[in-house]
UniProtKB/TrEMBL annotation:
GO terms for molecular function: nucleotide binding. Gene3D superfamilies: Dihydrodipicolinate Reductase, domain 2 (3.30.360.10), NAD(P)-binding Rossmann-like Domain (3.40.50.720). Residues 148-216 form the GFO/IDH/MocA-like oxidoreductase domain. This is Predicted dehydrogenase. It comes from Psychroflexus salarius. Coiled coil: none annotated. Pfam families: GFO_IDH_MocA, GFO_IDH_MocA_C3. SUPFAM superfamilies: Glyceraldehyde-3-phosphate dehydrogenase-like, C-terminal domain (SSF55347), NAD(P)-binding Rossmann-fold domains (SSF51735). Residues 2-118 form the Gfo/Idh/MocA-like oxidoreductase N-terminal domain. The lineage of its organism: Bacteria, Pseudomonadati, Bacteroidota, Flavobacteriia, Flavobacteriales.
Amino acid sequence: MLKVGVLGSGHLGKIHLRLLKASKKYKLVGFFDPDKETAENVSKEFGYKNFKSFNNLIHEVDVIDIVTPTLAHFDVAKQCIEAGKHIFIEKPITNTVAEAEQLIDLAKKHQVKGQVGHVERFNPAFRAALPSFNNPMFIETHRLAEFNPRGTDVPVVLDLMIHDIDAILSVVKSPVKHINASGVSVISDTPDIANARIQFENGCVANLTASRISLKNMRKSRFFQKDAYVSVDFLEKKTEVVRMKDAPKQPGDFDMILQNAEGVKKQIYFENPEIDENNAILDELETFADAINNNTTPIVSLEQGTEALRVAKQIINAFDN
C-alpha cells in the first residue's frame, strides 16, 4: 500500500481524507492544513493525524494529495516533486500555464508521477459513452450551478468550464485552431457566466456554456458525429446514444424512419449504455495508485491537465477581444 498524505482539509479535502482512509490501495498517514483551527477540528472530529508542518508530512509518505486553493498549487507541488514524492493535484493544475509546464519538467527530472483531479473523466456516464465516440464534429456543453461563494475567487471558466474543456480535449484528437468567448460578471469580481466556441484544426466545433448563477444545476454534454448523437448527463449519470443506419427495404411498423430531400432513408435507433455506478473521486485516486504501482501513465496526466488550463486561459483572454 502506498503511504499518502493530504494537504488541505477544507470541503474537498475532507472528502479525500475519508476516501483515502477507506481505500485498500493507500495507507492514510495524515494531513496538514496551515489553518491550525481547521486542522485541529478535523483531526478531533475524524481522528486523522494532524501534522504540525508540511515538511514533516512529506517525509512520511510516498504520495501527496494536494487539495489546496489553486494559488498554492505550484509552490507545494514543486516542493513535493523535489522531495521525490508522487503528486495528485486538484484542478486546475496551477494558476498559470508556465507553472504547469515547470511542474511537468520537474516531474520528469525527479522521475515521479502526477495526476490532475479532473474528476468528470471518471463520471460513470462519461465512461459509458467513451466506446461510442467516433470523431465527433460538433459538441455542445452546459454546466450550470446554483450560486456558491466557494470558488468565486477564480473565473467560472477555471471553476466549472474547465471540466468540460478537459473532457472535450480527451475526445477530440486535434489541436485547437481558434477560440471566441464572452464572459459576464454578475455577483463576483470575475466572470460568473461564460460562453466559448472552440474550433479545432480537424473541423470540429465545441460550444461551451458555464454559469454559477443558475436557478438549477445542470451538467450536460452532447456530441454529434456522422450517423450518431451521444448525450451525456454528468449530473444524473445517464447516457443515451442515438444512431442512424440505412433503412431496411421493408421497415417494421414501429421502426423510426427519416427521409432526406434526396430520398435517402435512414432508420433511427436508441441505445442506453449500461452505467456502472462508482465513486468518481475514489476511482481517480485509486487509478493513480495503479499508475504508480504499474509504472503506467496516469489517466489524467500533468500534460493533459496543462492543456486544459492552456485552453481555459485562452478563453479568459478572449473575453477582452
